[in-house]
Design a protein that fits this description.
CATH class: Alpha Beta
Order of helices and strands: HEEHEHEEHH
Radius of gyration: 16 Å
Structural class: alpha+beta
Number of strands: 5
Strand content: 15-25%
Helix content: 25-40%
Strand order of the largest sheet: 2-1-3-4-5
Distance between the termini: 49 Å
CATH architecture: 3-Layer(aba) Sandwich
Bound molecules: tetrahydrodeoxyuridine
Shape: globular
Largest sheet: 5 strands, mixed
Length: 147
């Protein structure tokens, strides 16, 4: 485990349990790759999601997308920790599009925890997963030359 990770064991266990339970309900009849995700807000609220695939493949949603949507619907606007779980040797980390979705709400020291059915395998600072992201500041920055 990364030493920068300050989440308590109890909180990490709760995040893991939420993501594991969501993964049980994953709808992945096309890829057969079930994913669960859970996000924790700085105040300790936890929201989970599972991947939801579709016969029209691009219409499917990642587990992280569902967890973030649940957080936002409940009024949450900050992510302190994300846990993603799948059953694969290589370990799972959020896809590129989900890294962008997480970036919208991630606190400066947000952590991403990668888990398998056996537990958390590694924890990485979110900033290392999406350096120099396109963000609100980019949108708000001044034009160099008006068009
Ligand atoms: N998937 C996720 O849910 N999260 C990720 O970060 C990567 C991929 C899902 C999408 C699709 O349902 C399946 O895994 C295979 O790509």
């Amino acid at each position: 485990m990364n030493t920068e990770n300050k989440i308590s064991k109890a909180a990490l266990d709760k995040l893991f349990a939420a993501a594991l339970a969501a993964r049980e309900n994953a709808y992945a009849p096309y890829s057969h790759f079930a994913v669960g995700a859970a996000v924790q807000t700085p105040s300790g609220d936890v929201f989970a999601g599972a991947n939801v695939e579709n016969a029209a493949y691009p219409a499917g949603c990642c587990a992280e997308t569902g967890a973030i949507a649940a957080m936002v619907a409940a009024g949450g606007r900050q992510i302190a920790d994300v846990l993603v779980i799948a059953d694969c040797d290589r370990g799972i980390l959020p896809c590129g599009a989900c890294r962008q979705r997480i970036a919208e709400f991630a606190t400066e020291d947000a952590m991403v925890h990668s888990a398998g059915p056996d537990g958390v395998r590694k924890s990485i600072r979110f900033a290392a997963l999406l350096p120099e992201a396109f963000d609100r500041e980019t949108l708000d920055s001044e034009p160099v030359r008006a068009v």
